[in-house]
Amino acid sequence: MRTIIVAVLVGVSVASVAADELRVTSAGAVEPGLVRLIEQFKRSSRHTVQVEFGTGPQLTARLESGQIGDVLIAPAAVMDQAVTARKVNSSTRTPVGRVGVGIVVRRGAAARQQTESGEQDHRECAAAGHGRAVMGGPS
What we know:
Elements: H1 2-15, E1 21-27, H2 31-45, E2 48-54, H3 56-64, E3 71-73, H4 76-84, H5 122-128
Parallel strand pairs: 1-2, 1-3
Helix pairs in contact: 1-2, 3-4
């Protein structure tokens, strides 16, 4: 992922050599790594980088209001909306990572068979390959 993001930043930099500032709009999930990459990029390119992080819905709202930067790093659903709305150049779309979520239950732990909402037991959902499981209790 690091190599691809650096390549995108360098590619944008080369494509817009006259630009003093590169504007990046990004999902917050990649913030820790992206901040370090941007610092390296700024040192090596002498460009400044303005980055705004947000959630998927925040990124969508920014795009809809016309706040489009030079680089967008966003979840697939946000990218799909941006491409459909013709807010971005679809030929430059490059997947750079994937977020996975998992769940396990300690061996021997008692697990509820069904929640108040009627959802399947989380073990049954996981075994069936369902995309989500709802568990009761405080979060």
